[in-house]
Write a structure and sequence with these properties.
Number of domains: 4
Oligomer: single chain
Largest sheet: 6 strands, mixed
CATH superfamily of the largest domain: P-loop containing nucleotide triphosphate hydrolases
Structural class: alpha+beta
Number of strands: 28
Number of helices: 20
CATH topology of the largest domain: Rossmann fold
Length: 641
Protein backbone atom coordinates (compact mmCIF):
# COMPACT_ATOMS: atom_id res chain seq x y z
CA UNK A 1 0.00 0.00 0.00
CA UNK A 2 1.13 3.60 -0.65
CA UNK A 3 0.98 4.52 3.00
CA UNK A 4 3.16 1.56 3.95
CA UNK A 5 5.74 2.57 1.30
CA UNK A 6 5.70 6.11 2.69
CA UNK A 7 6.25 4.83 6.21
CA UNK A 8 9.33 2.89 5.06
CA UNK A 9 10.73 6.08 3.46
CA UNK A 10 10.11 7.98 6.69
CA UNK A 11 11.81 5.25 8.74
CA UNK A 12 14.83 5.34 6.40
CA UNK A 13 15.07 9.12 6.64
CA UNK A 14 14.92 8.96 10.42
CA UNK A 15 17.75 6.42 10.45
CA UNK A 16 19.91 8.39 8.02
CA UNK A 17 19.33 12.02 9.02
CA UNK A 18 17.12 12.73 12.02
CA UNK A 19 17.56 16.50 11.63
CA UNK A 20 16.38 16.35 8.04
CA UNK A 21 13.35 14.36 9.15
CA UNK A 22 12.50 16.84 11.90
CA UNK A 23 12.89 19.76 9.49
CA UNK A 24 10.62 18.05 6.97
CA UNK A 25 8.10 17.27 9.67
CA UNK A 26 8.18 20.82 11.05
CA UNK A 27 7.35 22.33 7.66
CA UNK A 28 4.40 20.09 6.88
CA UNK A 29 1.02 21.81 6.77
CA UNK A 30 -1.39 21.05 9.61
CA UNK A 31 -5.02 20.05 9.10
CA UNK A 32 -7.40 20.10 12.06
CA UNK A 33 -10.54 18.04 11.61
CA UNK A 34 -13.36 16.54 13.63
CA UNK A 35 -15.38 13.36 13.29
CA UNK A 36 -19.12 13.89 13.79
CA UNK A 37 -22.26 11.82 13.67
CA UNK A 38 -24.71 9.85 15.74
CA UNK A 39 -24.07 7.22 18.41
CA UNK A 40 -22.16 4.14 17.21
CA UNK A 41 -21.55 5.48 13.71
CA UNK A 42 -17.93 4.39 14.16
CA UNK A 43 -16.09 7.65 14.87
CA UNK A 44 -13.58 6.22 17.33
CA UNK A 45 -13.01 3.13 15.20
CA UNK A 46 -12.29 5.33 12.22
CA UNK A 47 -9.78 7.44 14.16
CA UNK A 48 -8.09 4.28 15.39
CA UNK A 49 -7.86 3.04 11.82
CA UNK A 50 -6.31 6.35 10.68
CA UNK A 51 -3.72 6.14 13.44
CA UNK A 52 -2.97 2.50 12.69
CA UNK A 53 -2.76 2.80 8.93
CA UNK A 54 -0.59 5.94 9.09
CA UNK A 55 1.90 3.97 11.21
CA UNK A 56 2.04 6.59 13.94
CA UNK A 57 0.85 4.47 16.87
CA UNK A 58 3.46 3.63 19.48
CA UNK A 59 4.54 0.00 19.57
CA UNK A 60 3.16 -0.59 23.05
CA UNK A 61 -0.23 0.74 21.97
CA UNK A 62 -0.19 -1.61 18.98
CA UNK A 63 0.70 -4.51 21.23
CA UNK A 64 -2.23 -3.69 23.48
CA UNK A 65 -4.54 -3.52 20.49
CA UNK A 66 -3.29 -6.87 19.18
CA UNK A 67 -3.80 -8.44 22.60
CA UNK A 68 -7.36 -7.10 22.72
CA UNK A 69 -8.03 -8.36 19.20
CA UNK A 70 -6.98 -11.89 20.21
CA UNK A 71 -9.11 -11.65 23.31
CA UNK A 72 -12.24 -10.84 21.31
CA UNK A 73 -11.40 -13.38 18.62
CA UNK A 74 -10.60 -11.13 15.65
CA UNK A 75 -7.77 -11.71 13.20
CA UNK A 76 -5.21 -9.57 11.37
CA UNK A 77 -6.22 -5.98 10.78
CA UNK A 78 -9.76 -6.54 12.08
CA UNK A 79 -9.04 -5.19 15.56
CA UNK A 80 -11.12 -2.93 17.75
CA UNK A 81 -9.51 0.41 16.97
CA UNK A 82 -12.00 2.23 19.17
CA UNK A 83 -10.34 0.76 22.26
CA UNK A 84 -7.53 3.26 21.86
CA UNK A 85 -9.39 6.47 21.22
CA UNK A 86 -12.96 6.39 22.55
CA UNK A 87 -13.27 9.64 24.50
CA UNK A 88 -16.63 8.77 26.07
CA UNK A 89 -15.33 5.45 27.39
CA UNK A 90 -12.43 7.30 28.98
CA UNK A 91 -14.86 9.69 30.64
CA UNK A 92 -16.81 6.86 32.20
CA UNK A 93 -13.82 4.81 33.29
CA UNK A 94 -11.94 7.71 34.89
CA UNK A 95 -14.98 9.36 36.40
CA UNK A 96 -14.03 12.74 34.95
CA UNK A 97 -15.29 14.98 32.19
CA UNK A 98 -13.13 15.08 29.07
CA UNK A 99 -14.29 17.97 26.91
CA UNK A 100 -12.69 16.71 23.70
CA UNK A 101 -10.04 14.03 23.11
CA UNK A 102 -7.51 15.25 20.54
CA UNK A 103 -5.31 12.79 18.60
CA UNK A 104 -2.26 13.55 16.51
CA UNK A 105 -0.95 11.62 13.52
CA UNK A 106 0.95 12.37 10.34
CA UNK A 107 1.60 11.08 6.86
CA UNK A 108 4.45 11.92 4.51
CA UNK A 109 2.52 14.93 3.19
CA UNK A 110 0.72 16.48 6.16
CA UNK A 111 0.21 16.57 9.93
CA UNK A 112 -3.23 16.11 11.46
CA UNK A 113 -5.04 16.86 14.71
CA UNK A 114 -8.39 15.10 14.97
CA UNK A 115 -11.01 15.79 17.63
CA UNK A 116 -12.72 12.66 18.97
CA UNK A 117 -16.09 13.51 20.52
CA UNK A 118 -19.01 11.31 21.62
CA UNK A 119 -22.04 11.09 19.36
CA UNK A 120 -24.61 11.15 22.17
CA UNK A 121 -26.96 14.14 22.06
CA UNK A 122 -26.09 15.18 25.63
CA UNK A 123 -22.47 15.62 24.51
CA UNK A 124 -23.27 18.00 21.66
CA UNK A 125 -21.29 20.68 23.53
CA UNK A 126 -18.18 18.50 23.10
CA UNK A 127 -18.72 18.48 19.36
CA UNK A 128 -19.03 22.29 19.30
CA UNK A 129 -15.77 22.60 21.23
CA UNK A 130 -13.92 20.37 18.79
CA UNK A 131 -15.46 21.99 15.72
CA UNK A 132 -14.57 25.51 16.85
CA UNK A 133 -10.93 25.07 15.69
CA UNK A 134 -11.47 22.58 12.85
CA UNK A 135 -10.80 23.11 9.14
CA UNK A 136 -12.76 20.03 8.05
CA UNK A 137 -15.54 17.82 9.38
CA UNK A 138 -15.95 14.13 8.67
CA UNK A 139 -19.68 13.44 9.05
CA UNK A 140 -20.10 9.72 9.63
CA UNK A 141 -23.29 7.85 8.80
CA UNK A 142 -23.99 4.22 9.61
CA UNK A 143 -24.89 2.67 6.24
CA UNK A 144 -27.56 0.57 7.97
CA UNK A 145 -29.31 3.60 9.54
CA UNK A 146 -28.97 6.46 7.09
CA UNK A 147 -29.33 10.15 7.97
CA UNK A 148 -30.37 10.63 11.62
CA UNK A 149 -31.27 13.64 13.77
CA UNK A 150 -27.80 13.85 15.29
CA UNK A 151 -26.32 13.70 11.77
CA UNK A 152 -28.39 16.76 10.90
CA UNK A 153 -27.53 18.54 14.15
CA UNK A 154 -23.78 18.00 13.74
CA UNK A 155 -23.91 19.00 10.07
CA UNK A 156 -25.82 22.17 10.88
CA UNK A 157 -23.41 23.07 13.69
CA UNK A 158 -20.36 22.39 11.52
CA UNK A 159 -21.76 24.70 8.84
CA UNK A 160 -22.85 27.28 11.42
CA UNK A 161 -19.40 27.36 13.00
CA UNK A 162 -17.92 27.98 9.58
CA UNK A 163 -16.19 24.72 8.67
CA UNK A 164 -15.54 25.00 4.94
CA UNK A 165 -14.84 21.36 4.09
CA UNK A 166 -17.31 18.51 4.69
CA UNK A 167 -16.68 14.81 4.09
CA UNK A 168 -19.72 12.53 4.16
CA UNK A 169 -18.27 9.18 5.23
CA UNK A 170 -20.87 6.43 4.81
CA UNK A 171 -19.38 3.92 7.23
CA UNK A 172 -19.88 0.19 7.85
CA UNK A 173 -20.35 -0.51 4.16
CA UNK A 174 -19.18 -4.05 4.86
CA UNK A 175 -22.40 -4.61 6.83
CA UNK A 176 -24.61 -3.76 3.83
CA UNK A 177 -22.66 -5.84 1.32
CA UNK A 178 -20.92 -2.77 -0.15
CA UNK A 179 -24.19 -1.88 -1.86
CA UNK A 180 -23.96 1.05 -4.25
CA UNK A 181 -27.73 1.51 -4.05
CA UNK A 182 -27.55 1.99 -0.28
CA UNK A 183 -24.71 4.47 -0.66
CA UNK A 184 -26.42 6.46 -3.42
CA UNK A 185 -29.68 6.65 -1.46
CA UNK A 186 -27.92 7.98 1.66
CA UNK A 187 -25.94 10.54 -0.36
CA UNK A 188 -29.14 11.75 -2.05
CA UNK A 189 -30.95 12.09 1.31
CA UNK A 190 -28.03 13.98 2.81
CA UNK A 191 -27.63 16.22 -0.23
CA UNK A 192 -31.24 17.35 0.06
CA UNK A 193 -30.77 18.23 3.73
CA UNK A 194 -27.35 19.82 3.16
CA UNK A 195 -28.76 22.16 0.52
CA UNK A 196 -31.49 23.30 2.93
CA UNK A 197 -28.90 24.50 5.47
CA UNK A 198 -26.54 26.08 2.97
CA UNK A 199 -23.94 23.34 2.49
CA UNK A 200 -23.26 23.63 -1.23
CA UNK A 201 -20.45 21.08 -1.55
CA UNK A 202 -19.41 17.94 0.27
CA UNK A 203 -17.30 14.90 -0.60
CA UNK A 204 -19.16 11.58 -0.17
CA UNK A 205 -17.21 8.34 0.19
CA UNK A 206 -18.12 4.73 1.11
CA UNK A 207 -15.85 3.42 3.84
CA UNK A 208 -15.40 0.75 6.47
CA UNK A 209 -13.38 1.95 9.42
CA UNK A 210 -13.30 -1.61 10.73
CA UNK A 211 -12.16 -3.27 7.48
CA UNK A 212 -10.15 -0.34 6.15
CA UNK A 213 -12.05 0.13 2.89
CA UNK A 214 -11.22 3.41 1.11
CA UNK A 215 -9.26 4.70 4.09
CA UNK A 216 -5.74 4.80 2.61
CA UNK A 217 -6.47 3.77 -0.98
CA UNK A 218 -9.13 2.33 -3.33
CA UNK A 219 -10.99 -0.72 -2.08
CA UNK A 220 -11.61 -3.74 -4.29
CA UNK A 221 -14.97 -4.10 -2.52
CA UNK A 222 -16.27 -0.85 -4.05
CA UNK A 223 -15.21 -0.90 -7.72
CA UNK A 224 -18.10 1.43 -8.50
CA UNK A 225 -16.54 4.21 -6.36
CA UNK A 226 -13.97 6.34 -8.20
CA UNK A 227 -13.47 9.15 -5.69
CA UNK A 228 -10.53 9.75 -3.34
CA UNK A 229 -9.62 7.71 -0.29
CA UNK A 230 -10.13 9.41 3.07
CA UNK A 231 -6.40 9.83 3.74
CA UNK A 232 -5.85 11.00 0.16
CA UNK A 233 -8.52 13.66 0.53
CA UNK A 234 -7.25 14.78 3.95
CA UNK A 235 -3.75 15.11 2.50
CA UNK A 236 -4.82 17.18 -0.50
CA UNK A 237 -7.71 19.38 0.69
CA UNK A 238 -6.89 23.08 0.43
CA UNK A 239 -6.84 24.64 3.91
CA UNK A 240 -6.86 28.15 2.42
CA UNK A 241 -4.41 29.51 5.00
CA UNK A 242 -4.01 32.77 3.06
CA UNK A 243 -7.65 33.86 3.46
CA UNK A 244 -7.15 35.35 6.92
CA UNK A 245 -3.99 37.18 5.83
CA UNK A 246 -5.89 38.89 3.03
CA UNK A 247 -8.18 40.65 5.51
CA UNK A 248 -7.31 43.87 7.42
CA UNK A 249 -4.94 43.49 10.37
CA UNK A 250 -6.45 42.80 13.80
CA UNK A 251 -5.05 41.30 17.01
CA UNK A 252 -6.68 40.89 20.42
CA UNK A 253 -4.30 41.79 23.24
CA UNK A 254 -3.87 38.77 25.49
CA UNK A 255 -1.09 40.11 27.66
CA UNK A 256 0.54 43.45 28.38
CA UNK A 257 4.26 42.70 28.63
CA UNK A 258 6.25 45.20 30.72
CA UNK A 259 9.39 43.54 32.17
CA UNK A 260 10.97 46.95 32.84
CA UNK A 261 10.34 50.67 32.49
CA UNK A 262 12.01 50.75 29.08
CA UNK A 263 9.78 48.14 27.41
CA UNK A 264 6.00 47.95 27.01
CA UNK A 265 4.67 45.40 24.59
CA UNK A 266 1.26 43.99 23.71
CA UNK A 267 1.18 40.24 23.11
CA UNK A 268 -1.40 38.21 21.24
CA UNK A 269 -2.26 35.96 18.31
CA UNK A 270 -2.82 37.86 15.08
CA UNK A 271 -6.41 37.11 14.03
CA UNK A 272 -6.23 38.52 10.52
CA UNK A 273 -4.11 40.51 8.10
CA UNK A 274 -0.43 41.40 8.24
CA UNK A 275 1.46 44.09 10.12
CA UNK A 276 4.82 45.83 9.72
CA UNK A 277 6.77 48.39 11.74
CA UNK A 278 5.53 51.86 10.83
CA UNK A 279 1.94 50.73 10.13
CA UNK A 280 -0.72 53.07 11.61
CA UNK A 281 -3.02 51.28 14.06
CA UNK A 282 -6.14 51.96 16.08
CA UNK A 283 -6.85 50.57 19.56
CA UNK A 284 -10.43 49.49 20.20
CA UNK A 285 -12.85 50.12 21.76
CA UNK A 286 -11.21 53.42 22.84
CA UNK A 287 -10.33 54.49 19.26
CA UNK A 288 -6.87 55.80 20.19
CA UNK A 289 -4.28 55.72 17.42
CA UNK A 290 -0.54 55.10 17.16
CA UNK A 291 1.96 53.29 14.92
CA UNK A 292 3.78 49.98 15.20
CA UNK A 293 7.32 50.41 16.46
CA UNK A 294 8.58 46.81 16.69
CA UNK A 295 7.36 43.22 16.16
CA UNK A 296 9.06 41.20 18.88
CA UNK A 297 9.34 37.39 19.08
CA UNK A 298 11.50 34.91 20.99
CA UNK A 299 13.64 34.54 17.87
CA UNK A 300 14.14 38.27 17.41
CA UNK A 301 12.31 41.15 15.75
CA UNK A 302 10.35 40.57 12.54
CA UNK A 303 9.96 42.80 9.50
CA UNK A 304 6.41 41.51 9.04
CA UNK A 305 3.95 39.20 10.79
CA UNK A 306 0.60 37.78 9.75
CA UNK A 307 -2.50 35.87 10.75
CA UNK A 308 -1.78 32.83 12.90
CA UNK A 309 1.46 34.19 14.39
CA UNK A 310 1.88 34.99 18.09
CA UNK A 311 3.86 38.21 18.53
CA UNK A 312 4.50 41.12 20.86
CA UNK A 313 3.93 44.57 19.38
CA UNK A 314 5.42 47.78 20.68
CA UNK A 315 3.90 51.14 19.81
CA UNK A 316 5.44 54.50 19.05
CA UNK A 317 3.28 56.27 21.64
CA UNK A 318 2.41 55.69 25.32
CA UNK A 319 -1.28 55.03 24.70
CA UNK A 320 -3.71 53.27 26.99
CA UNK A 321 -4.09 49.65 25.89
CA UNK A 322 -4.94 46.66 28.08
CA UNK A 323 -5.86 42.97 27.95
CA UNK A 324 -8.92 42.41 25.79
CA UNK A 325 -8.42 45.50 23.65
CA UNK A 326 -8.00 44.99 19.91
CA UNK A 327 -5.11 46.50 17.96
CA UNK A 328 -6.21 46.92 14.35
CA UNK A 329 -5.38 48.63 11.07
CA UNK A 330 -6.17 52.32 11.55
CA UNK A 331 -8.14 52.64 8.31
CA UNK A 332 -10.06 49.32 8.57
CA UNK A 333 -10.83 48.73 12.26
CA UNK A 334 -13.37 46.18 13.54
CA UNK A 335 -16.79 47.40 14.68
CA UNK A 336 -17.54 48.53 18.23
CA UNK A 337 -20.95 47.98 19.86
CA UNK A 338 -22.74 46.78 23.00
CA UNK A 339 -25.90 45.24 21.49
CA UNK A 340 -25.93 42.38 19.02
CA UNK A 341 -27.93 39.70 17.33
CA UNK A 342 -26.27 36.34 17.90
CA UNK A 343 -26.79 32.67 17.16
CA UNK A 344 -26.42 30.67 20.37
CA UNK A 345 -25.89 26.97 21.08
CA UNK A 346 -27.01 26.25 24.63
CA UNK A 347 -24.81 23.69 26.40
CA UNK A 348 -26.12 23.48 29.97
CA UNK A 349 -28.66 21.20 31.63
CA UNK A 350 -30.23 24.29 33.19
CA UNK A 351 -32.19 26.28 30.63
CA UNK A 352 -31.09 29.76 29.65
CA UNK A 353 -32.69 32.50 31.72
CA UNK A 354 -33.50 35.54 29.55
CA UNK A 355 -32.35 38.69 31.31
CA UNK A 356 -29.89 36.81 33.54
CA UNK A 357 -26.36 38.24 33.44
CA UNK A 358 -23.67 35.83 32.26
CA UNK A 359 -19.98 36.33 31.71
CA UNK A 360 -19.35 36.63 27.98
CA UNK A 361 -15.81 35.79 26.83
CA UNK A 362 -14.89 36.96 23.36
CA UNK A 363 -11.21 36.56 22.57
CA UNK A 364 -9.30 37.94 25.53
CA UNK A 365 -12.17 40.19 26.64
CA UNK A 366 -14.63 39.16 29.36
CA UNK A 367 -17.72 41.31 29.92
CA UNK A 368 -21.08 40.96 31.61
CA UNK A 369 -23.85 40.17 29.12
CA UNK A 370 -27.56 39.52 29.22
CA UNK A 371 -29.36 37.36 26.67
CA UNK A 372 -32.89 38.37 25.78
CA UNK A 373 -35.79 36.01 25.08
CA UNK A 374 -34.89 34.15 21.87
CA UNK A 375 -36.45 35.34 18.66
CA UNK A 376 -36.67 31.70 17.66
CA UNK A 377 -35.04 28.29 18.02
CA UNK A 378 -34.04 26.19 15.03
CA UNK A 379 -35.44 22.69 14.41
CA UNK A 380 -32.42 20.81 13.05
CA UNK A 381 -34.63 18.31 11.21
CA UNK A 382 -36.80 20.76 9.29
CA UNK A 383 -34.87 24.06 9.72
CA UNK A 384 -38.15 25.57 10.94
CA UNK A 385 -37.95 28.63 13.20
CA UNK A 386 -39.73 27.74 16.43
CA UNK A 387 -41.25 30.24 18.85
CA UNK A 388 -39.67 29.66 22.28
CA UNK A 389 -39.22 31.54 25.54
CA UNK A 390 -35.82 30.08 26.38
CA UNK A 391 -33.17 27.65 25.15
CA UNK A 392 -32.59 24.21 26.69
CA UNK A 393 -29.70 21.77 26.45
CA UNK A 394 -28.42 21.46 22.84
CA UNK A 395 -30.95 23.99 21.52
CA UNK A 396 -29.81 26.37 18.81
CA UNK A 397 -31.45 29.76 18.68
CA UNK A 398 -31.18 33.39 17.68
CA UNK A 399 -31.38 36.10 20.34
CA UNK A 400 -30.27 39.62 21.15
CA UNK A 401 -27.30 39.99 23.49
CA UNK A 402 -26.52 43.14 25.46
CA UNK A 403 -23.10 43.74 27.03
CA UNK A 404 -22.34 46.12 29.88
CA UNK A 405 -19.74 47.98 27.80
CA UNK A 406 -18.63 48.45 24.22
CA UNK A 407 -16.55 45.65 22.71
CA UNK A 408 -14.64 45.38 19.45
CA UNK A 409 -15.95 42.62 17.23
CA UNK A 410 -16.46 41.32 13.72
CA UNK A 411 -19.39 39.20 12.52
CA UNK A 412 -18.50 35.55 12.99
CA UNK A 413 -18.86 34.96 9.26
CA UNK A 414 -15.93 37.33 8.76
CA UNK A 415 -13.77 36.48 11.77
CA UNK A 416 -14.06 33.49 14.07
CA UNK A 417 -11.57 35.04 16.49
CA UNK A 418 -13.47 38.33 16.88
CA UNK A 419 -17.00 37.00 16.42
CA UNK A 420 -17.16 33.79 18.45
CA UNK A 421 -17.90 33.82 22.17
CA UNK A 422 -18.79 31.64 25.12
CA UNK A 423 -21.22 32.30 27.97
CA UNK A 424 -20.21 31.44 31.54
CA UNK A 425 -22.54 31.15 34.53
CA UNK A 426 -21.43 33.72 37.10
CA UNK A 427 -22.33 31.50 40.05
CA UNK A 428 -21.03 28.08 38.98
CA UNK A 429 -18.35 29.31 36.55
CA UNK A 430 -19.54 26.63 34.10
CA UNK A 431 -19.54 27.29 30.37
CA UNK A 432 -23.24 27.25 29.51
CA UNK A 433 -23.35 28.41 25.91
CA UNK A 434 -21.39 29.18 22.77
CA UNK A 435 -22.36 31.83 20.30
CA UNK A 436 -21.61 33.62 17.08
CA UNK A 437 -22.19 37.35 16.69
CA UNK A 438 -24.24 38.01 13.56
CA UNK A 439 -24.31 41.82 13.55
CA UNK A 440 -24.55 44.86 15.82
CA UNK A 441 -28.06 46.19 16.42
CA UNK A 442 -28.59 49.51 14.72
CA UNK A 443 -29.79 51.14 17.92
CA UNK A 444 -26.44 50.41 19.57
CA UNK A 445 -24.86 52.74 17.01
CA UNK A 446 -27.61 55.38 16.95
CA UNK A 447 -28.40 55.83 20.66
CA UNK A 448 -25.98 58.07 22.55
CA UNK A 449 -25.78 59.55 26.03
CA UNK A 450 -27.09 63.09 26.16
CA UNK A 451 -25.00 65.48 28.24
CA UNK A 452 -27.03 66.94 31.16
CA UNK A 453 -25.97 70.02 33.07
CA UNK A 454 -27.71 69.20 36.35
CA UNK A 455 -25.76 66.20 37.67
CA UNK A 456 -26.74 63.62 40.27
CA UNK A 457 -24.34 65.35 42.66
CA UNK A 458 -26.18 68.63 42.12
CA UNK A 459 -29.54 66.96 42.76
CA UNK A 460 -28.21 65.42 45.98
CA UNK A 461 -26.67 68.68 47.17
CA UNK A 462 -30.00 70.46 46.64
CA UNK A 463 -31.58 67.92 49.00
CA UNK A 464 -28.64 68.03 51.42
CA UNK A 465 -28.22 64.27 51.33
CA UNK A 466 -26.36 61.50 49.56
CA UNK A 467 -28.44 59.25 47.27
CA UNK A 468 -28.63 55.64 48.39
CA UNK A 469 -30.49 52.44 47.50
CA UNK A 470 -31.77 50.38 50.46
CA UNK A 471 -32.56 46.97 48.97
CA UNK A 472 -34.81 44.84 51.23
CA UNK A 473 -34.84 41.14 50.29
CA UNK A 474 -36.44 38.09 51.91
CA UNK A 475 -39.21 35.53 51.59
CA UNK A 476 -42.83 36.46 51.05
CA UNK A 477 -44.26 37.28 54.48
CA UNK A 478 -40.88 38.04 56.02
CA UNK A 479 -41.87 41.64 56.78
CA UNK A 480 -39.91 43.49 54.08
CA UNK A 481 -42.64 45.97 53.17
CA UNK A 482 -43.58 46.61 56.80
CA UNK A 483 -40.01 47.36 57.86
CA UNK A 484 -39.23 49.39 54.72
CA UNK A 485 -42.32 51.51 55.31
CA UNK A 486 -41.24 52.22 58.90
CA UNK A 487 -37.73 53.12 57.75
CA UNK A 488 -39.10 55.61 55.22
CA UNK A 489 -41.29 57.21 57.86
CA UNK A 490 -38.23 57.75 60.04
CA UNK A 491 -36.27 59.20 57.12
CA UNK A 492 -39.16 61.51 56.31
CA UNK A 493 -39.29 62.70 59.91
CA UNK A 494 -35.57 63.49 59.62
CA UNK A 495 -36.24 65.68 56.59
CA UNK A 496 -34.76 63.24 54.06
CA UNK A 497 -36.10 62.90 50.52
CA UNK A 498 -36.97 59.28 49.79
CA UNK A 499 -39.24 56.98 47.82
CA UNK A 500 -40.38 53.40 48.49
CA UNK A 501 -40.75 50.95 45.60
CA UNK A 502 -42.83 47.99 46.78
CA UNK A 503 -43.03 44.68 44.92
CA UNK A 504 -46.81 44.38 44.86
CA UNK A 505 -47.33 48.04 43.93
CA UNK A 506 -44.90 47.87 41.01
CA UNK A 507 -46.74 44.85 39.58
CA UNK A 508 -49.92 46.94 39.33
CA UNK A 509 -48.33 49.18 36.70
CA UNK A 510 -44.76 49.04 35.39
CA UNK A 511 -44.47 45.26 35.69
CA UNK A 512 -48.10 44.21 35.28
CA UNK A 513 -47.12 42.22 32.18
CA UNK A 514 -44.78 39.92 34.12
CA UNK A 515 -45.58 36.60 35.76
CA UNK A 516 -43.58 34.63 38.31
CA UNK A 517 -41.41 32.34 36.21
CA UNK A 518 -37.67 32.61 36.80
CA UNK A 519 -37.30 34.62 33.61
CA UNK A 520 -40.11 37.01 34.61
CA UNK A 521 -38.65 37.45 38.09
CA UNK A 522 -35.31 38.37 36.53
CA UNK A 523 -36.94 40.95 34.26
CA UNK A 524 -38.95 42.28 37.23
CA UNK A 525 -35.79 43.02 39.19
CA UNK A 526 -33.96 44.40 36.15
CA UNK A 527 -36.69 46.98 35.60
CA UNK A 528 -36.88 47.90 39.27
CA UNK A 529 -33.11 48.28 39.39
CA UNK A 530 -33.14 50.67 36.43
CA UNK A 531 -35.95 52.73 37.97
CA UNK A 532 -34.18 52.83 41.34
CA UNK A 533 -30.97 53.99 39.69
CA UNK A 534 -32.80 56.83 37.93
CA UNK A 535 -34.32 57.87 41.25
CA UNK A 536 -30.92 57.92 42.95
CA UNK A 537 -29.66 60.01 40.02
CA UNK A 538 -32.35 62.50 41.09
CA UNK A 539 -30.71 62.57 44.52
CA UNK A 540 -33.31 60.44 46.32
CA UNK A 541 -32.84 57.76 48.95
CA UNK A 542 -34.69 54.81 47.41
CA UNK A 543 -36.09 51.86 49.37
CA UNK A 544 -37.16 48.68 47.55
CA UNK A 545 -39.10 45.78 49.06
CA UNK A 546 -38.93 42.77 46.72
CA UNK A 547 -38.39 39.08 47.28
CA UNK A 548 -35.65 39.33 44.61
CA UNK A 549 -34.83 35.63 45.04
CA UNK A 550 -31.67 35.36 42.91
CA UNK A 551 -28.23 36.62 43.97
CA UNK A 552 -27.23 37.19 40.35
CA UNK A 553 -29.94 39.80 39.78
CA UNK A 554 -29.28 41.53 43.10
CA UNK A 555 -25.63 41.70 42.07
CA UNK A 556 -26.66 43.27 38.75
CA UNK A 557 -28.45 46.06 40.60
CA UNK A 558 -25.47 46.45 42.94
CA UNK A 559 -23.22 46.85 39.88
CA UNK A 560 -25.48 49.61 38.52
CA UNK A 561 -24.81 51.78 41.55
CA UNK A 562 -21.69 53.77 42.42
CA UNK A 563 -19.46 52.12 45.00
CA UNK A 564 -21.00 52.21 48.48
CA UNK A 565 -24.49 53.33 47.44
CA UNK A 566 -26.14 49.87 47.44
CA UNK A 567 -27.21 48.73 50.91
CA UNK A 568 -28.55 45.13 50.92
CA UNK A 569 -30.84 44.38 53.87
CA UNK A 570 -31.67 40.73 54.39
CA UNK A 571 -34.97 40.35 56.22
CA UNK A 572 -34.22 36.88 57.50
CA UNK A 573 -37.35 34.91 58.32
CA UNK A 574 -37.39 31.09 58.28
CA UNK A 575 -39.80 29.55 55.76
CA UNK A 576 -41.90 27.91 58.48
CA UNK A 577 -42.33 31.27 60.25
CA UNK A 578 -43.24 33.13 57.07
CA UNK A 579 -45.66 30.35 56.12
CA UNK A 580 -47.26 30.40 59.57
CA UNK A 581 -47.91 34.14 59.22
CA UNK A 582 -49.28 33.81 55.65
CA UNK A 583 -50.92 37.22 55.85
CA UNK A 584 -52.01 37.14 52.21
CA UNK A 585 -52.89 33.42 52.09
CA UNK A 586 -50.33 32.82 49.35
CA UNK A 587 -48.51 29.92 50.99
CA UNK A 588 -51.80 28.07 51.45
CA UNK A 589 -52.60 28.50 47.75
CA UNK A 590 -49.08 27.45 46.77
CA UNK A 591 -49.29 24.28 48.87
CA UNK A 592 -52.63 23.52 47.24
CA UNK A 593 -51.08 23.86 43.79
CA UNK A 594 -53.08 26.98 42.95
CA UNK A 595 -49.96 29.16 42.58
CA UNK A 596 -46.97 27.98 40.56
CA UNK A 597 -43.36 29.13 40.93
CA UNK A 598 -43.87 30.36 44.48
CA UNK A 599 -40.62 31.27 46.22
CA UNK A 600 -39.74 28.86 49.01
CA UNK A 601 -42.19 26.19 47.81
CA UNK A 602 -41.40 25.32 44.18
CA UNK A 603 -39.05 28.16 43.29
CA UNK A 604 -35.73 28.75 45.07
CA UNK A 605 -34.66 31.66 47.26
CA UNK A 606 -30.95 32.42 47.40
CA UNK A 607 -30.20 34.33 50.61
CA UNK A 608 -27.49 37.01 50.55
CA UNK A 609 -24.05 35.69 51.43
CA UNK A 610 -22.71 39.00 52.75
CA UNK A 611 -25.62 41.41 53.29
CA UNK A 612 -24.99 44.94 54.49
CA UNK A 613 -27.39 44.20 57.34
CA UNK A 614 -29.26 41.11 58.50
CA UNK A 615 -32.55 41.43 60.38
CA UNK A 616 -33.72 38.34 62.30
CA UNK A 617 -37.47 38.87 62.49
CA UNK A 618 -37.92 35.98 64.91
CA UNK A 619 -36.19 38.03 67.62
CA UNK A 620 -36.61 41.61 66.39
CA UNK A 621 -39.86 43.58 66.06
CA UNK A 622 -40.50 45.65 62.92
CA UNK A 623 -40.13 48.89 64.91
CA UNK A 624 -36.81 47.81 66.42
CA UNK A 625 -35.64 46.59 63.02
CA UNK A 626 -36.42 49.96 61.42
CA UNK A 627 -34.59 51.78 64.19
CA UNK A 628 -31.57 49.51 63.80
CA UNK A 629 -31.49 50.07 60.04
CA UNK A 630 -31.59 53.85 60.38
CA UNK A 631 -28.88 53.78 63.05
CA UNK A 632 -26.75 51.46 60.89
CA UNK A 633 -26.99 53.55 57.75
CA UNK A 634 -26.46 56.76 59.70
CA UNK A 635 -23.29 55.21 61.12
CA UNK A 636 -22.10 54.11 57.70
CA UNK A 637 -23.03 57.29 55.84
CA UNK A 638 -22.69 60.05 58.45
CA UNK A 639 -22.41 62.98 58.67
CA UNK A 640 -24.93 63.26 55.82
CA UNK A 641 -27.22 60.36 54.95
Amino acid sequence: MATQDSSYKVDALIAQDIEAYLDQHQNKSLLRFITCGSVDDGKSTLIGRLLYDSKMIFEDQLAALEADSKRVGTQGQEIDFALLVDGLAAEREQGITIDVAYRFFATEKRKFIVADTPGHEQYTRNMVTGASTADLAVILIDARKGVLTQTRRHSFLAHLIGIRHIVLAVNKMDLVGYSQDVFDRIVADYAEFAKSIGIENFVPMPISGFKGDNITGPSANTPWYTGPSLIGHLESVDIDIDADRARPFAMAVQWVNRPNLDFRGFSGLIASGTVKPGDPIRILPSGRTSTISRIVTMDGDLDEAGAGQSVTLTLADEVDCSRGDVIAAADHPPQVADQFQATIVWMDDEAMLPGRAYWMKLGARTVSATVQQPKYAIDVNTMAELSVKTLGLNDIGVAEVYTDRDIAFEPYADSHALGGFILIDKTTNHTVGAGMLDYALRRSQNVHWQAIDITREAHAAQKNQRPRLLWFTGLSGSGKSTIANLVEKKLYAMGKHSFLLDGDNIRHGLNKDLGFTDADRIENIRRVGEVAKLMTDAGLIVLTAFISPFRAERDIVRAMMPEGEFFEIFVDTPLEVAEARDVKGLYKKARAGQIANFTGIDSPYEPPENPSLRIDTTTTSPEDAAEAIVEAIMGVWSPTL
